Amino acid sequence: MFSLIEHIEYLMMSHDCVIVPGWGALIAQYSDSFYNEEAGIINKPQRKVGFNSSVNHNDGLLAQSIVRREGITYDEAVRFIADSVTTFKQQLNAGNEVSLGRLGFFHSNEGLVDFIPFFHESSNDEYFGLRSVNFKTLAQLRKEQEEAEQPVVETVVVRTSWAKRAMQIAASVIVLLALVPILTTPILRESDTFAGLNLPEIKKPTRPVFNWDSAKVDLAVTLPEQAIEAQKTVKPIAKKDDKANLETSLANTSGSGRFYLIISSLSTEKQVKEYLGSHHDLGELQVLKRGNKYRIYVARDNSADKLYKIKRELPERYHDAWVCD
After folding, report:
1. β-strand 194-195 against 187-188: which pairing, if any?
2. What is the pLDDT of residues 126-159, one digit of tens each?
3. Is the residue at 186 inside a domain?
4. Other C-beta atoms within 10 Å of 260: how many?
5. What's this model's pTM, rounded to 2 decimal places?
6. Phi, psi of 123 (to 5 degrees)
């Protein structure tokens, strides 16, 4: 059985006012498109959901929807709503928030019930498919062009290569070796005495010297050709074929029934034609016309649970899909 929150979400997709008896009314509010100068964005027309706790009578809309979807009596639906509202109030009294799915959440503000709606860029409303437009003004474009035309000062860093430094060290060693015989050769003087440098005695190192000629060292070096061949033998990790699973799920639907899996809602036949021409990843799409609206659906069945399961398998671009009857 669906929760009361799911029933409310379902009704808010096609109604502008849904009253929860004993709790309050969720009312859709519309706003025109406007330009946000600071962010440089033209916001699309929006449909936001508000809440009025004073409108809490039973108009029968929510109860009748539960009767149709759950297959229970009207009295059972009314009791189901009353029990859910009691749970909502207990959560608020305990200092917790009450989530309303993708619509928003309730919280207690000094004894009053406040509703905080969520913003959805592509919500399921009259403006489905429209998105806000982000653009740059002429002043911003001129500034970027001026910055791009400014000369770039390159910093040249002079670095001494290791080869050059090694040559300098080697030259210093050669000079020192050439001076050793001159500094250590005794000089004969008239007094028949000898003079020389009072150098300390050089002792042999006491630690053993490693003999590289007799050592047996095995070096395991992988050549580029060997690395490439080894890489070819590595088997790729098998990935789950999500598309095949989705096709199987779609094939298991009856193609008829009271429930539809809707992926888009359009206003004109021209929009429908353009949409069908640019969406081929879900196979053959169907069109459901109700009133002045054209709804594109990808599957139809008597089981809403089956359609909700397929919805979770849809690609990311269809994350706003919904089920309706």
Report:
1. antiparallel
2. 566 667 777 677 888 888 888 888 876 655 555 5
3. no
4. 21
5. 0.39
6. -75, 160
